[in-house]
Amino acid sequence: MTNKKCTLCGKQVKEIRRRFCSYKCAGLARQNYKLCVICGEKFSSPPSAETKTCGNPDCVKQHRLNVSHLPQISGSVDKGREAYQSTLAGQRGPEFHGAKHWVIQAPDGKVYECRNLLHWCRENEHLFDGAARQAWDGIVKIKYSMQGKRKRPVGQWKGWKLLSWSD
């Protein structure tokens, strides 16, 4: 036996090269502790984590309120909402960056050209026998059939035909 004591709990250590009496003490010594900025309570958190509060919902809420009034953060929520709305506006209509050019033929033989098929179907829902989303889906399935991507290919949807499309 040695006279060496555990650096955490003070019990006697059985081996010469050890600093702790057990794996439990060694594990507890490796943990990193921080103090909650709101209540001052000690809590376990990795050193790399940017956690500031103990996890108590009241502390978290209070910390968010305190931080939201900082000059570098104030107004960021409003800016985020504006950016989200502008992004949504840019994703609809013919100006959508991913829109394709489509040429389709109606059952009566009339040819229509459009950019962004789903938007066009929504605007011209009166032309279809069903909902705009169903028409869009039917025409897209014709496209997949033409590309050889469907097990059961289709050439038309309720008389509507796809003449061409471009990416």
Mean pLDDT level? 86
Sheet with the most strands, sense and barrel status: 3 strands, antiparallel
Structural class: alpha+beta
Helix content: 25-40%
Report the radius of gyration as a whole number of Å: 33 Å
- One letter per element, helices H and strands E, the order comes to HEEHHEEHHE
The proportion of strand residues reads 5-15%
Secondary structure: number of strands: 5
Number of helices: 5
- Please list the strands of the largest sheet in the order they lie side by side: 4-3-5
Would you identify the regions where 5 or more consecutive residues have pLDDT less than 50? none
Distance between the termini: 79 Å
Mass-distribution shape? elongated
Describe this structure in words.
- The chain has 167 residues and is α+β, with helices and mostly antiparallel strands.
- The chain has helices at 23-30, 57-68, 76-90, 117-123, 132-146, and strands spanning 33-35, 42-44, 101-105, 111-115, 161-166.
- The strands form 2 sheets. It has a 3-stranded antiparallel β-sheet with strand order 4-3-5, covered by helices on one side. It has a two-stranded antiparallel ribbon with strand order 1-2.
- Strand 3 (101-105) and strand 4 (111-115) form a beta hairpin.
- Helix 4 (117-123) packs antiparallel against helix 5 (132-146).
- The N and C termini lie far apart (79 Å).
- The relative contact order is 0.08.
